[in-house]
Amino acid sequence: MEEHPAIESFRYEHQHGLHFCWTIQKGFQKGTDLKRMQAYAEFFYINYLEDHFQFEEEMVFPILGNENELVKKAKREHRRIKRLFFDRDNLLKSLSLLEEELYSLIRFEEHELYKAVLDHASDEQLESIENSHQTLKEEDYPDHFWE
Questions:
Q1: How do residues 90-134 score in pLDDT, each as one tens digit?
Q2: Rounded to an integer, what distance in angstroms lies between the CA atom of residue 95 and that of residue 92?
Q3: Which of 145, 139, 142, 141 is nearest to 34 (CA)?
Q4: CA angle at residue 131 from 57 to 63, to 5 degrees?
Q5: pLDDT at residue 12, rounded to an integer
Q6: Residue 1 has what pLDDT?
Q7: Which residues fall within 8 angstroms of residue 119, CB to CB, at 6 or more apart?
Q8: Beta strands in the chain (DSSP E)
Q9: Residue 9: which of 139, 103, 113, 130 has the closest Cα?
């Protein structure tokens, strides 16, 4: 993703998202109980990712407009990923899909969506994002099943 002060903090937040994906992979490799992994996934969404998605949808996506195909895709993926975070019917399947789809979403946003935002945003829009976005701090989760 091209660096710009208005969106630098999103790169940091995306790194936390990629770390989450890594923890799920590690949990699978270690044979961690799926309920432990699901509890962490719910914690991560509620305490971190939900606010990230909300800020993107309220402040970043409107720059391109709701009819923009990149925005439509990102919103669709946000909805799908949210469902996966809380799907308890088949934990193995939902956690596996969650790890893959969140990783893909982050790469899509960094390589396509944010480039388009930077190409279309006015200086005032970028300044508004920069002034209103506070980088989220990942909360420490007590059960480090991935270690």
A1: 999 999 999 999 999 999 999 999 999 999 999 899 889 888 877
A2: 5
A3: 145
A4: 35
A5: 84
A6: 44
A7: none
A8: none
A9: 130
